[in-house]
């Protein structure tokens, strides 16, 4: 299904975004901000903005570097080595609390995926990882999973077989890092409230009012070649999606999801449209 991203522009000038506070509608509260578990669109939207994996998707759909500063792969596509940036750090809830993002954080994340007690819905997506099925079934210990930290900043991943989508999968939510010490400190509430939700991406979760809104603030610890333009994003829960377009046109929201027929209702307002194929949904922004 083709979807559209619309931008309001003034003449030929580029919109100024730096420091802007965005308001964006979502249909419901996120169910869980645990990357290894989350499946609903609202949760995944937040996760994509507060976490960063080894790799990330660029605006043009290409793969870019995230926590990894470089990587190599052997000729058979079954052995990967990722060199991690040493300036990537966690933002933990609580003023001034942080820790480096290390290879062990990725090892722990994938061990959680293949821990049967986690009940991650994503294990099958990564069955290409060496011994993944055996670890999930309990016939091999977690230490036999084909992912390990050679050093704090060198992550090695061995695959049973080459997967042409493997690097793409590493940009998805379940491949986000997980700090073991912080995870254990949440005592089963990881990703369920502000105090139990860390961040290593461009934003962190500052406030979460159930069934009302989530407030994301730009992460001062985040370093990237792609600057964080917005200072904050408020995700406002509006279950009646028929009211989204009116809210956008009235400038009560700066961004909405918009597809096919709904786009026609606002084309006459002077918005520039851009179509994206093979995409589930797109964003509509007020950038004046």
Which percent range fits the helix content?
10-25%
What ranges have pLDDT less than 50 throughout 5 or more consecutive residues?
Answer: 1-16, 278-284
> What pattern of helices and strands is seen along the backbone?
EEHEEEEEEHHEEHHEEEHEHEE
The main sheet comes to: 4 strands, mixed
- Estimate the strand proportion: 25-35%
- Taken from the alpha-carbon principal axes, the silhouette is globular
Question: What is the fourth-level CATH superfamily of the domain at 34-192?
Answer: Dipeptide-binding Protein, Domain 1
Distance between the termini: 28 Å
Tell me what the structure shows.
Helices cover 18% and strands 28% of the residues. The protein contains 7 helices and 16 strands. The strands form 5 sheets. Strands 14-16-1-15 form a 4-stranded mixed sheet. Residues 1-16 and 278-284 have low confidence and may be disordered.
Structural topology:
Blueprint: E1 3-8, E2 20-26, H1 41-50, E3 55-57, E4 63-65, E5 68-73, E6 79-84, E7 89-91, E8 98-100, H2 103-113, H3 132-137, E9 147-151, E10 154-158, H4 166-169, H5 180-185, E11 203-209, E12 213-218, E13 230-237, H6 244-249, E14 255-257, H7 260-267, E15 271-276, E16 283-285
Parallel strand pairs: 1-16, 2-13
Antiparallel strand pairs: 1-15, 3-4, 5-6, 6-10, 7-8, 9-10, 11-12, 12-13, 14-16
Give me some keywords for this one.
288 residues; alpha+beta; four-stranded mixed sheet; 7 helices; 18% helix; globular
Short précis:
It is built from seven helices and 16 strands. The chain has 288 residues and is an alpha+beta fold.
